[in-house]
Amino acid sequence: MGCRAAGCVINDFTDRDIDKHVERTKARPLTTGELSKNQAGLFLAGLMGFNFAVLFQMPPECIKLGFAVTPLVFFYPWTKRFFAFPQLVLGATFNFGVMIGYAAAAINTTVNWQVCLPFYAGGILWTMVYDTIYAFQDRDFDKRLGLRSSAIQMEERPKLYVGSMAALSTACFALGGI
Known about the structure:
Elements: H1 2-14, H2 16-19, H3 29-32, H4 37-55, H5 60-79, H6 86-94, H7 97-105, H8 113-135, H9 139-145, H10 150-153, H11 158-177
Helix pairs in contact: 1-4, 1-5, 5-6, 5-7, 6-8, 8-11
């Protein structure tokens, strides 16, 4: 939960000027000034400290994986400015825990990529499904602001694309289970 909260703080900090122009996000504390940039930075530092304290209790493989994914947490909010499918980066970030969880639970503390990759891919696709649906509510604002999203890319045939990603996600989870 601390990792997700840290990601939300990073996202809100990065998008504070954009969020002013979006109906759904214009009342966020950083956007309104209710929360200062310094306060957000201190809160983020506390969350990151907590997250790393938990991470350092895990096996060395988990620590390596945790450090490997950390840059993605900071990179994701910027992707909507230049990448047509930022939800793909969000999915890659959110679902990296599959490998960390496997390494933490495994007897030999290494990742079995043959098992983890289908679950990771399924999670990425599922994140793209729900976040694309979610992104449709901001699509018009994103277009006006020159931002990118999978909702804009898929707006001509959303049911086909989202349905296909959901089916592929399910297939990946089934493959991982097998």
